Amino acid sequence: MSLPLDRRRESAVGAELRLERGRYVSFDGGLELAVMRARPDRYRVWRDREVVNGPLISRGAGLSYVAASFGGGATTLESDAFDRILDFSPQERTVTVEAGIRLGGLFAFLAARGFFLPTQPGHPAISVGGCVAADVHGKNQPRDGTFTRQVLGMSLFHPRHGVIDVSSRSHPEVLRLTCGGYGLTGTILTVTLRVAPIASGAVVRETIPIADIFSLREEMTRASGDADFIFTWHDFMARGRRFGRGILEVGRFAQSDEDARVGYTTASPSLRADARRTWRLSLFNRYSARAFTALYHAYAARPRTSRKVSLFTGLFPIVGRESYFKLFGRRGFFEYQSLVPNDAFATFLETIQKRLEREPVAVTLASTKAFVGRPELLRFDGTGTVLALNFPRSRTSADFMRFLDDLVVGTGSKPNIIKDSRLPLEVVRRAYPEYEPFRAALREFDPDRIYRSALSERLAL
Amino acid sequence: MTAVVVGASAGVGRALAWELARRRHDLLLVSREEQDVDAVARDLRLRFGVRATPVAVDLATPRQAVRVVVAAGKNYERIDALLLPAGAAVDEDHIGADPDIVDRLVAVNFLSIALLAAEFFHRMAAEGGGAIVGFGSIAAARGRSRNVVYAASKRALTSYFESLRHAAAGSNVSISFYELGFVATQASFGRRLLVPPTTAERVARHVVARYHQDRGTVYFPWYWRPLTMGVRLVPWLLFRRMSF
C-alpha cells in the first residue's frame, strides 16, 4: 500500500502526536478514571489538525476539584509544553502567554519587572488556561472582578474551526463562551492578559478576630475600605454562640518595601491531584475536626500586630499548606462553595447552624469572601457573600452536601461548578439561569461536541 | 557568547536553548517548525534578555538549509558553540521503505548535520575557537529491523564526529558527541521503555556546562555505555529472535 507523496513526507517529519494510557483523579479525590492522553509539543499539531478523531479535552495542572480535564471518553491533551511567554508590554500593561504556563512562573517573570496579575487563585501551580476555563477569582473580587476581566484575548484551537484569534473585536461570542467555559470550546493556546504594576513587593497583613459570624458583613465592609486582599476563616465546629467564630484577614500592599522580602521567588511549590492522595487514611472525623478547627482558631485569632509578608505569600496563601489536602487521605474531601445573596446570608448561616447542631458533620474549613458582579452563563460570579465549606468525604458529609444543594436552591444561591465533583445537573439548572443559553451556544460552536469531560457529561453540556 | 542550536523547537533542542540563554548566550535557533522556534525565541528573549533569532529551514534539503543557516550566522560576530540535536524518526523506517523516506531520513539525520558541522568548524577554526556538539542515539547501538535508516544515519554521524574531532585536533575547536539514552520527549511518549528516560532538562544542563570541553563520544546518562555494550554482545542466535 503506498501513500500519496505529500502525506508520506508529512509523516517523515518524525515524532507524530503519540498517545498513551494514563490515569487521572480529580483533586478532591471524587473521581478517578483511566484515559488516553497526549502531550503535544509543536504548533503543527494544531495548525494541521493532527489531533485524534474523537472527543478531546485540555489539561493544565489538573487542579480543578472536579474532573474538568479528563473523562467523557475524551483524549486528554496536556498543555505542559505550551508554557512560554510570547509578549510583554510594560507600556500597554499586557502580557501574552501560552495557556500551559503556571501562575508561579508567570509571577516570577512579571514581579521581576514590576507587575503582577491582581486576580489569582491561591496556588502557583495552577495554569493560566485553567484560570480562564474556570473563571477563577482572587482575593478582592469586588474591586478586581474575576479572571475574565483580565483576559484581553486568546487563540483557541478547535478541529472544526482551526486556530482562531478570539477577542472583543474578533469572535467576541467565542471569548464570552470560553471564559468560564470549562475548556469546552476548545484548546486555549495563548492568552493575552492585563497586568497591573506592583505597588510594593510586600503585603502588610492584619488579622481581626470575629466573635460572631452574624456580624460578618459589617466587619467586612468596615475593613474592606482600602484593603487589597480580604477573606475570612471560621470555626463551624464550635457550638452554641461560638459557632462561626473566626478571623478576618486583611492585606494591604506595603507603602514601600524598605525591609520587605521582595517576594518574586524562583521556587515552584508543587501541588498535584495524584500526590494529594499519598496518605491513605484520613485524619479528619467529627472529633479531630473539632480539635483541628479549635486549635487553628486559637492560633489564628491570637493577639498580634500587623506583619509584613512577601507579595508571593500574600497572593498564594496555600503555599506551605498543601499538606492540609493530604490530611483527607485517599478518599479525599468535599468542597461546597456557594455565592449567597446578601439578604439571604443570615438565613443561610442559621439553617446550616441548626442542621449541624442536629446532625454534626466534620467541617474542616469555612471561609467567606465578598463578591460584586453580574452573573453570566456558567461563571461563578454575581453579588453576595461566597461561603466555602470543606468536609472529609464520607456518607454523613455526602448527606450534608445534598442538604446544601437544597439550601442553595432555596435561597437563590449559586454553587461553584469547579469545586464539587458530585454537583447534580438539577441544581446547576436551577441555580444558573443561563444554563440553557450556554448549552445552546456551545452546541452552535461545537455541533459534534468534540470537547468533553466527565464534568460536561454530568452537566449534560 | 553566541550559540547556534539546530533543532530548537522542542525536546532536547528547546531545553538546550533555555540552558544556553540562562547562561547569557545570544542564540540562533534553527528548526523546520517556524512557529515553535519563534515561540522559543520570544520566551528566551523576554525572560533572559538575550538576542534570539529564529531561523526556519527544512533539513531535508541540506544544501539550502546550510546556506540559510550560514547566512544567518553572519549576523553574529562570533559563534562560540554549535549544537545539533536535530533528528527525525518515523514508524515506516524498515527494510524496503519508500526511497523518499530513506532520502529524507538520511538528509535530516546525517547529511545536513555533517555539512553544518563542517561549515561552522571552518568558521570557528578561523575565528580562534569554538565548540561543536553532536547527538547520537542508543537506537544505533546495533542494527535492528526497526528504525533502520535512522540508526544507520546516527551511526554514520558518530563516525563523522570522530573524524571531525581528529581533524580538529590542534585547533581550538572542541568536539563532543553525546550518545543519548531514552529522553522523555514526544518520540518516547507512550512507549513502554525498559529503562526509565532521563529528561531533556537534565541532558541540557549536562551538555551546556561542558560544551567547551573536547570530550569526543560520551554516553548520557553514563549507564548507557555498559548497556550499549551489553546489547552488542547479545549472541546472534538470541538477538535474531528479539524485536524491539
Cα-based radius of gyration of chain B, to the nearest Å: 17 Å
Count of DSSP strands of chain A: 19
| Percent strand of chain A | 15-25%
Residue stretches of chain B low in confidence (pLDDT < 50, at least 5 long) are none
Strand order of the main beta sheet of chain A, please?
15-12-14-13-17-18-16-19
Average of the residue pLDDT scores of chain A: 91
Major sheet strand order of chain B? 3-2-1-4-5-6-7
- Biggest β-sheet description of chain A: 8 strands, antiparallel
Helicity range of the residues of chain A?
A: 25-40%
**Ends of chain B: how far apart?**
42 Å
C-alpha geometry of chain A: globular
Instruction: Give the structural class of chain B.
Output: alpha/beta
What is the strand and helix layout of this fold?
The complex is a heterodimer of chains A (461) and B (244).
Chain A: H1 5-11, E1 19-25, E2 32-38, H2 44-47, E3 56-59, E4 75-78, E5 85-89, E6 94-98, H3 103-112, E7 115-116, H4 128-134, H5 141-144, E8 151-158, E9 162-167, H6 172-178, E10 187-194, E11 196-197, E12 202-210, H7 216-224, E13 229-235, E14 245-253, H8 286-300, E15 307-310, H9 311-315, H10 323-326, E16 333-340, H11 345-358, E17 365-371, E18 384-392, H12 395-411, E19 414-415, H13 425-431, H14 435-445, H15 454-458
Chain B: E1 2-6, H1 11-22, E2 26-31, H2 34-48, E3 52-56, H3 62-73, E4 81-84, H4 99-127, E5 130-137, H5 148-168, E6 173-180, H6 200-210, E7 216-220, H7 224-233, H8 236-239
